[in-house]
Design goal:
Elements (H helix, E strand, L loop, with lengths): L3 H7 L8 E5 L4 E3 H16 L8 E5 L4 H13 L2 E4 L6 H11 L3 E4 L4 H10 L3 E4 L7 H6 L16 E7 L7 E6 H14 L7 E4 L6 H14 L2 E4 L5 H7 L5 E4 L1 H8 L14 E4 L6 H11 L4 E6 L3 E5 L13 E2 L4 E5 L13 E6 L6 E2 L3 H7 L6 E9 L5 E6 L4 E3 L2 E3 L1 H10 L3 E11 L3 E10 L7 H9 L10 E4 L13 H7 L7
The structure holds methylmalonyl-coenzyme A and adenosine monophosphate.
């Protein structure tokens, strides 16, 4: 095939007047109309001086046009680089510079703040708003609705997704066409997607979950999506009777359970609820089944690997586990120190290998070598265990990471800012249990001798550099941080001390 990703996901739907997206305002968009738009975008990008393999960074609201930019990049052979819409200009600046993106698409509202960044690295800045309007759409309107798909191979890069690191520096995970396709094909079979499906899509499309898992499956199956801008309980409840499937982070499910309108009757038409990105409490799993008669299917994945494991569609979906490795994916539990495979049942580092595993981190060979072994196994940083029946459980993390409402937050990034704040000697950032987000962020501060810390002032001092979902919910001042005999801060002790801070 000339371009496996485009041909398989998008090209197969050329000329189809069946619906692809159902929008919040009641409008629908056919596959054919969507592909026309994508072709215009591909035409515009191609005539903007980009070469195949160049990066197109996008920080735009979820809209049909935003997905068409993804399709356009696939068709024209560019690397799609989606960014969280919550990132500040400081954060975006790093991604644009690090990736060497040739184009940055942003919301018109944020354009002024980003102009100096794109000017500084010779990138073009174009705009696209939540309604699909902006300079990019205006320019694309004069391009043809057919575009000659650029030849690419399965080994070519299709997307960069940035994931934060324990050192605070984000790393661009390089994903190939085959990484994405192989995973969508495995998931489509495992989860039995067909063109009859209607997926309730309320996830953001700048992460693997909403973009590759949910959208690519829909495209591969030729099915439909009820495409909502964000998770809004009223909208989810209004649309569920028309849907057959939903994918969400655990917060979606706990919020649904907190609403009396969410009943067995409302979920009657659904055939599958999938959860991932963060641990689903066994209690949520049980309550969900009691309420609806459905057992949530929990799966496990990462930006670097797409999906690795899934509970079975037909067999027992076991609460507290993430199921079995997907076909084609090898998963082993190893000793973190030696890398040796541990006997069945023991807890250790989860390592995975398969066609889903990324190519490495963009221009970070040392980081890549630390996490991706030469034999192809990726060291996930998650701690797991495999039971007698082969079910994998994630029992902890070997990486200092907080997952809040499905968003990953690396404490180091916040600690570096807090350490620099006025009057602060040092800080430790931890995740504590939270009823809505699963975990939330707490910053523990120690003052410089002779200083009294003003936590509100510190909050505003760091706020300009950090997306809001990374802001600590609470800052607590202590005389000193607990340390072990080696002088290392004992985060576990801090997590234990503040475990009930948000208990209901
Ligand atoms: C929003 N806020 C948050 C979060 N989301 N704070 C902490 N954690 C969050 N996740 C803050 C906003 O900054 C704002 O703060 C306030 O909450 C309200 O914002 P709003 O947008 O209205 O929030 P929401 O609509 O209630 O959003 C919560 C949410 C959303 C629905 C849980 O965060 C969400 O859709 N999460 C899914 C993330 C996801 O797709 N993760 C997959 C990545 P303020 O009031 O101060 O301004 S992981 C992945 O892809 C891997 C591969 C995998 O396995 O899937
Ligand atoms: P990300 O870096 O956003 O790709 O997040 C990947 C991380 O999310 C994994 O390394 C896990 O720690 C976590 N994760 C994803 N799915 C699950 C799950 N079902 N249960 C527990 N943790 C999960």
């Amino acid at each position: 095939m000339a371009n496996p990703l485009f041909d398989t996901l998008f090209g197969q739907h050329r000329g189809k007047n069946t619906p692809f997206l159902h929008l919040e305002n009641g409008d629908s968009l056919s596959y054919a109309a969507f592909l026309d738009r994508a072709a215009q975008f591909a035409g515009l990008l191609s005539s903007s001086g980009l070469d195949a393999g160049d990066r197109v960074a996008v920080q735009i609201a979820k809209s049909p046009e935003a997905l068409a930019v993804y399709a356009a990049c696939a068709q024209a052979g560019f690397v799609f680089l989606p960014l969280n819409t919550a990132y500040t200009a400081d954060e975006v600046s790093y991604f644009v510079e690090n990736s060497g993106a040739k184009v940055l698409l942003c919301d018109p509202v944020g354009a002024a703040a980003l102009k100096s960044i794109t000017d500084g690295c010779n990138a073009q800045l174009e705009t696209l708003d939540a309604n699909g309007a902006g300079s990019f759409a205006d320019k694309a309107a004069s391009y043809s609705t057919s575009f000659a798909t650029v030849d690419r191979s399965g080994d070519d890069l299709a997307a960069f997704l940035y994931t934060s690191g324990t050192t605070g520096r984000s790393k661009g995970a390089m994903l190939t066409q085959d990484n994405l396709l192989s995973n969508s094909e495995a998931l489509l079979k495992e989860w039995r997607f067909t063109e009859k499906d209607v997926l309730l899509h309320a996830l953001p499309i700048f992460h693997t979950h909403g973009l590759f898992v949910a959208t690519n499956i829909t495209l591969l199956a030729g099915s439909q999506m009820i495409y909502l801008p964000k998770f809004d309980l009223d909208q989810i409840i209004a649309n569920m009777p028309r849907a057959t499937t939903m994918m969400g982070v655990p917060t979606f499910y706990t919020r649904l359970l907190g609403d009396a309108r969410f009943t067995r009757e409302l979920a009657r038409h659904m055939r599958l609820f999938v959860s991932g990105s963060a641990p689903l409490l066994a209690e949520t799993h049980v309550q969900f089944e009691e309420r609806t008669g459905h057992r949530i299917l929990e799966r496990y994945g990462m930006t670097e690997t797409n999906m690795n494991t899934s509970n079975p569609y037909d067999g027992e979906r076991r609460a507290g586990t993430v199921g079995f490795p997907l076909p084609g994916v090898e998963l082993k539990i190893t000793d973190s120190q030696t890398g040796e495979t541990l006997p069945q049942g023991e807890i250790g580092e989860i390592e995975v290998r398969g066609p889903n595993v990324f190519r490495g981190y963009w221009q970070m060979p040392e980081k890549t070598a630390e996490e991706l072994r030469s034999n192809g196994f990726f060291i996930t940083g998650d701690l797991g265990q495999i039971d007698q029946d082969g079910y994998v459980s994630i029992v902890g993390r070997n990486k200092d990471l907080i997952i809040s409402g499905g968003y990953n937050i690396y404490p180091k990034e916040i600690e570096l800012l807090l350490d620099d704040a006025t009057g602060v000697l040092e800080s430790a950032v931890i995740g504590v249990p939270h009823p809505d987000f699963g975990e939330t962020i707490v910053g523990i501060l120690v003052a410089l001798p002779g200083h009294t810390l003003d936590v509100d002032a510190i909050k505003s001092e760091i706020s300009g550099s950090l997306a809001r979902f990374k802001h600590p919910q609470r800052l607590i001042v202590v005389p000193e941080l607990p340390r072990n005999t080696m002088g290392k801060v004992q985060k576990k002790a801090l997590r234990d001390t503040y475990a009930d801070l948000f208990a209901t």
